[in-house]
Amino acid sequence: MIRLLFALLALTLTVPATAQDMLPPAPYAYRQLPDSAQEAKAQALMETLRCLKCQSQSIADSDAPMAGDMRHQVRTRIAAGEEPEHIRQWLIERYGDYVSYTPQVKPITWPLFAAPLVFLALAALLLRGRFRRRAETPVEGSGE
Amino acid sequence: MTTDPRDLVKKKPGLALWLPLALFGAFFVLVIWGLVRPADREVASAFIGKPLPEFNLPPATEARPGLATATFRAGKPRLLNVFASWCVPCAVESPQLAALAAQGIEIDGVAIRDRKEDLDRFLATNGNPFKRIGKDDLSQVQLAIGSSGVPETFVVDGKGVIRYQHIGDIRPEDVPLILGKLAEAAQ
After folding, report:
1. Cβ-nearest to B148 among A23, A52, A128
2. Per the record's keyword annotation, is Transport included, yes or no (chain A) (predicted)?
3. Superfamily for domain range B56-186
4. Cα dist. B31→A55, A111, B41, B79 in Å?
5. How far is B167 from B115, CA to CA, in rounded Å?
């Protein structure tokens, strides 16, 4: 009994080593939405939003209180009928493109989307030259 | 007529031979640059130059009233300090906030995820430079103004437009800068 008391005391008296708040997580930080379709939408969005405290994680991955508050905000807004992309834009307006893991089509990002097409076209051009040469000289390397 | 890469090799073996090494060199320099360059992990608010969003926070402590957007439209620039009692640098910047308050600057606080008893203890220890302190338990106002941590201090002009964001604690050497931004916002 005494031991149990001491154990409890030790648990309650420990001072947190890191600066962290003592409030319980936001209501929808760890609770899913009752509507599974809405929860799926929220989950998909949360996986593509950056946690601002732990910047290589998404808010879906992070246990930082701020990420919990962001999840709460995403879930309550989706439950209220807001579109995921609207929420993403709301955050981008405040934190810049950095908050979104999904690249947005903008003047500065067009090479991201154009590069695959350019490479495909380049490959097609190169291959065309090769195939043509092969057709002209059926026996590879016979001239050397 | 397309050129075969093998023809290139035949004509200029020297250049083609060095290409992979040059590419590797460029890649190496890029990686070293990324390693050596000091990491910048601050996320600046994209909301500077925009009006404060509408909010109306209840008081975080009995000592001060709550905080609403209307306060920032009174015609005089104010500081909006996003802080918390559990945040160590927030205690570090308190002498600087006190100095600013002593010069007649009006400072309002938004307490992030804070308990009343912790906040009261924090204010008793570090002083209370705030005119108002709003309670933001879900970080809603913090998210709405593009703040990504504590402490952060926003200069808001007399019309309620965010003019400047200071990320991290205000050090003694930052005080003139903050005063300058407040004077700019007053014009």
Report:
1. A52
2. no
3. Glutaredoxin (3.40.30.10)
4. 20, 22, 18, 41
5. 23
Predicted TM-score of the model (pTM): 0.80
Tokens for B38, please give them.
Answer: 């000091």
Per-residue pLDDT reduced to its tens digit, B148-163? 999 999 999 999 999 9
Candidates A91, A111, A114; CA nearest to A101 is: A91
pLDDT band at A94, cuts 50/70/90?
very high
A67 touches chain B (CB under 8 A): no
Query: Best interface-test mutation with B: which of A18, A20, A23 has the largest number of B CBs within 10 A?
Result: A23
> Residue B139 and residue A66: Cα distance in Å, rounded?
7
Mean pLDDT of chain A: 86
CATH annotation of A23-102: 1.10.8.640
Q: What is the pLDDT of residues B79-102, one digit of tens each?
A: 999 999 999 999 999 999 999 999
Cα–Cα distance measured from residue B20 to residue B174, given in angstroms and rounded to the nearest whole number:
49
